[in-house]
Structures are given as C-alpha cells and as structure tokens.
C-alpha cells in the first residue's frame, strides 16, 4: 500500500510548499513580466519545461524550497535578460527561433510546405474547421507559427477580403 500512501510522505510540507511556490511564482512573474511564460520561441518552450521540472522537484522534496526558488529566479532572470538582448540584437531571434511558415496561400494548399513541416493535409483541414472556415475560398492564409500553433486568417463572407493587410504575413516564409 506504500504506492498509495506512505507515512513517510511529507504531505504537509508539500501543501505548504505549494502555497509558497504559488506566491513566489506570482511575485517573480509580476517583477519580471508576463513574457516569462509566453511561448514565442524554442527557448520559451524550454524555459516552461524547465520551470515545471523545478517546481516538481521542489514540491516532491527532491530539493529544498530555497534551492528551487533560486533556480526559478535564475531562469526568469535569464529569460528577462535574453528578451532584452533579442530587442537589442535582432539576429539572436533568428538564430534561436524558426520563422513562421505559410501552409496555405489563399485557397491554395502548399503541399511542399506541409511536407516540410510534417503536417498532414487532414490536420490542416481540422484547423480550418476549428476556425469555422466553410469553404476554401474564405481562406486568406494559414500559417504555422514559430510556436507550433496554426493560425487561420479567413474572410467571414466566403469572398477574398480586399482589405487584407499583407503586413500580417511579414516574416512568414513562403518556401521552406
């Protein structure tokens, strides 16, 4: 029965740790900024995974609260510093982030781009349904974002929208 409950489990410490970690994360996020948990780049993804691992280790008593807080603070500080460096030196963003990729240009599916991104046509069509696209003529563009999300830009009336601002596609690769 030790796999269900063990008297040696530090249950009270874990509950107290949860409360403390919760407030520390809120305070640090308020100090460092919401960008800390955004998912814009590969390093944002890695940061989120690392924070989750640190919190898990801290709450399951693999490490002390102080040790966990220092690790979380260090990662948040690194993220904060790196985001400032990216603004100062734009080449850093290009170095660590994939540029978004166009999957559909208007009503035309770009099969080569789908293949490059390892996205099946059925997955693309599923995203079109999620965006309430009723027919391909509504689609202005579909973009695989650098986060892995798929954005569907479409006109609601089934006609190509003449007011579509092409600058929405700035930085989007048309070819892999």
UniProtKB/TrEMBL annotation:
<feature type="transmembrane region" description="Helical">
    <location>
        <begin position="40"/>
        <end position="59"/>
    </location>
</feature>
<keyword id="KW-1003">Cell membrane</keyword>
<dbReference type="InterPro" id="IPR007353">
    <property type="entry name" value="DUF421"/>
</dbReference>
<dbReference type="InterPro" id="IPR023090">
    <property type="entry name" value="UPF0702_alpha/beta_dom_sf"/>
</dbReference>
<dbReference type="GO" id="GO:0005886">
    <property type="term" value="C:plasma membrane"/>
</dbReference>
<dbReference type="Pfam" id="PF04239">
    <property type="entry name" value="DUF421"/>
</dbReference>
<comment type="similarity">
    <text>Belongs to the UPF0702 family.</text>
</comment>
<keyword id="KW-1133">Transmembrane helix</keyword>
<keyword id="KW-0472">Membrane</keyword>
<keyword id="KW-0812">Transmembrane</keyword>
<feature type="transmembrane region" description="Helical">
    <location>
        <begin position="65"/>
        <end position="85"/>
    </location>
</feature>
<feature type="transmembrane region" description="Helical">
    <location>
        <begin position="12"/>
        <end position="33"/>
    </location>
</feature>
<protein>
    <submittedName>
        <fullName>Uncharacterized protein DUF421</fullName>
    </submittedName>
</protein>
<feature type="domain" description="YetF C-terminal">
    <location>
        <begin position="88"/>
        <end position="161"/>
    </location>
</feature>
């Amino acid at each position: 029965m030790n796999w269900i409950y063990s008297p040696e489990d530090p249950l009270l410490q874990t509950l107290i740790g949860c409360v403390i970690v919760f407030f520390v994360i809120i305070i640090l996020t308020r100090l460092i900024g919401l960008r800390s948990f955004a998912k814009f780049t590969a390093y944002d993804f890695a940061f989120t995974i690392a924070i989750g691992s640190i919190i898990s280790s801290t709450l399951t008593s693999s490490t002390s609260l102080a040790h966990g807080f220092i690790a979380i603070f260090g990662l948040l500080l690194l993220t904060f510093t790196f985001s400032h460096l990216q603004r100062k030196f734009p080449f850093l963003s290009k170095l660590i982030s994939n540029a978004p990729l166009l999957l559909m240009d208007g009503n035309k599916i770009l099969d080569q781009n789908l293949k490059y991104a390892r996205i099946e046509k059925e997955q693309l069509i599923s995203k079109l349904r999620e965006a309430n696209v009723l027919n391909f003529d509504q689609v202005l563009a579909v973009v695989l974002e650098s986060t892995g999300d798929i954005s569907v830009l479409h006109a609601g009336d089934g006609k190509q929208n003449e007011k579509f601002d092409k600058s929405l596609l700035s930085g989007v690769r048309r070819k892999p």
